[in-house]
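Students often ask why we bother encoding 3D structure as a string. The short answer is that it lets us treat folding as translation between two languages. Here is a chain of 164 residues written in the first language.
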Amino acid sequence: MESKTAVYFIIKRVVLVVFIFLFFVGYTNAGESLSKGESVYVSIYSNVYSGVKLHALELSGMLSIRNTDPKYSISIQKADYYDSKGELLERYITQPLKLKALESTHFLVKVSDKRGGPGANFIVKWQSDNKVNQPIIEGVMLSTRAQQGISFICPGKIISEHNE
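And here it is in the second language, the structure alphabet:
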């Protein structure tokens, strides 16, 4: 009977230590999602290939930018569209665009715009005067033909931090 009590005591201690560890790891990482600005890479596919003969399916793309901060605004400094070879195709923003708290915006790449190719992407640069929740920046691709459709998202990837 004493051995069962000792085992339960050890298990309780281990669970308590693990709980405390996870709590503090979560607590110390909580502020890491706050930033004053970043450059973000976002994949935008103009087309994808399927089948044995690799038929191209043309897609429309949408760059979606969502300010997730409930208190502060962010400023979108650039949203530049590049093709598969890394060549700049278009600057979607010519002057900074302010997004208020919880506001969002989007930019469209039409299905007829085949300039980007399967490796097209956006580079988005944003900044804020305050440390804010990182915005959600993602590519949304869609195509429908007859009774078939395809849609998918590509989350943005931070390529540099701008916390000056």
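Translate back mentally: The helical segments are 2-29. Keep this in mind for the problem set.
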